[in-house]
Amino acid sequence: MPPWLVGVEMQWTIFSGLSHQRKQKAAGQLVEEAKLATANTKSILQAGAAIARNKVTALQQDIAVLGMARQQAQATTMLIRQRRNEEMASVKELNESLLVEEEIAKAYYTAVTGYYLALAEYYNIIGTPQQIAPVIQ
């Protein structure tokens, strides 16, 4: 007989105490949780995109309105300046007109900045944030 020994051992579980079924059930629950999380994330992103799109639309309208108001304020200031040159308007009227024009310009540029931010947020939500670069330039 040789000084070494080779052997093979085999095990076969006949009854595992239902642990296999429990593992399958737990794995199934994990899959279901993952599906629910995916659906939840999808609905959150869709809602976020809709909100961002609505912000962009509202800010576009604000920019259009404030742009017209800005043009009107510039025209008013120009008319008051002409009247002032003809000494038909006071300095106070001209100063008030300039202040109104500046306030409208501030509101306009604030709306433009908000528009770019909302657009960047929208592009980020839909997964293409690089699309904001051409819009800004």
Features:
single chain; 137 residues; mainly alpha; 3 helices; rod-shaped
Give a quick rundown of the structure.
This protein has helices at residues 19-85, 91-126, 132-136. It is mainly α and 137 residues long. The chain is rod-shaped, with a radius of gyration of 35 Å.
Distance between the termini: 89 Å
Radius of gyration: 35 Å
Largest sheet: none
What is the tally of beta strands?
Answer: 0
Percent range for helical residues? over 70%
The ordered string of helix (H) and strand (E) elements is HHH
Structural commentary:
By secondary structure, the protein is mainly alpha-helical. It has a domain of 73 residues. The protein is built from 3 helices and no strands. Helix 1 runs antiparallel to helix 2. The termini are far apart.
List the helices and strands and how they pair.
Layout: H1 19-85, H2 91-126, H3 132-136
Helix pairs in contact: 1-2
